[in-house]
């Protein structure tokens, strides 16, 4: 009124309460490089990155720039994961080796583009997803080893004449359950 300032608003992006702890968990489990891609301006991005303990960030990014940056990081560092919740994250989520969407607050486009969805929105679950993926890969490798050796033993027993056709079929039936039993380790509680 009458060219006098009568009010002002200051808005700031405040990280989720669990975000800094989630970043720490990621480094604790061996994630080597954490980069924040954001459409926010550089000042806001720097403040958020500092609050979270993130050393690398890129600001004022369009969806296409996020995608290109993700591809460049993959070329430099190997497989990449991407966490996002918005339409602007969807192309990079879809391209990442593992795209994780925040399902509660995320847009339908981000959820559709992702490989995994976190419900409820808890950034701490990201490290759990990584650990579960590592454990699953370990179990799969174990299943392959079990299958190979149980079949090698079966072949040796058949070709040496120890097993006839009926016993070989029974042996094969029984040993087919060994990888399944090994895979059940994934369902055990922590």
CATH architecture of the largest domain: 3-Layer(aba) Sandwich
Low-confidence stretches: none
Mean pLDDT level: 91
Biggest sheet character = 3 strands, parallel
CATH superfamily of the largest domain: HAD superfamily/HAD-like
Sum up the overall morphology in one term: elongated
Rg is 25 Å
Terminal CA distance: 63 Å
CATH class call of the largest domain: Alpha Beta
Helical percentage: 40-55%
Major β-sheet strand ordering = 3-4-5
The H-and-E topology, N to C, reads as HEHEHEHEHEHHH
Number of contiguous helices: 8
The beta-strand count equals 5
- Kindly name the structural category: mainly alpha
Describe the structure.
The protein is mostly helical and 190 residues long. The chain has two domains: 19-124, Rossmann fold, CATH 3.40.50.1000; 131-187. The protein is built from eight helices and five strands. Strands 3-4-5 form a three-stranded parallel sheet. Helix 6 packs antiparallel against helix 7 (165-175).
């Amino acid at each position: 009124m009458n060219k006098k300032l009568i009010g002002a608003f200051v808005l700031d992006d405040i990280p989720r309460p669990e975000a800094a702890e989630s970043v720490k968990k990621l480094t604790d489990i061996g994630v080597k490089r954490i980069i924040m891609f954001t459409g926010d301006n550089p000042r806001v991005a720097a403040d958020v990155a500092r609050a979270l303990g993130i050393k690398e960030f890129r600001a004022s990014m369009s969806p296409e720039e996020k995608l290109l940056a993700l591809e460049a990081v993959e070329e430099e560092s190997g497989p990449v994961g991407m966490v996002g919740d918005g339409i602007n994250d969807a192309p990079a989520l879809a391209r990442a080796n593992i795209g994780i969407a925040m399902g509660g607050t995320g847009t339908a486009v981000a959820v559709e583009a992702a490989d995994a969805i976190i419900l409820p929105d808890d950034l701490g679950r990201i490290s759990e997803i990584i650990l579960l993926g590592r454990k699953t890969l370990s179990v799969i490798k174990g299943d392959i080893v079990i299958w190979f050796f149980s079949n090698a033993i079966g072949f040796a027993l058949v070709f040496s004449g120890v097993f006839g056709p009926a016993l070989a079929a029974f042996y094969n039936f029984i040993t087919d359950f060994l990888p399944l039993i090994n895979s059940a380790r994934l369902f055990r509680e922590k």
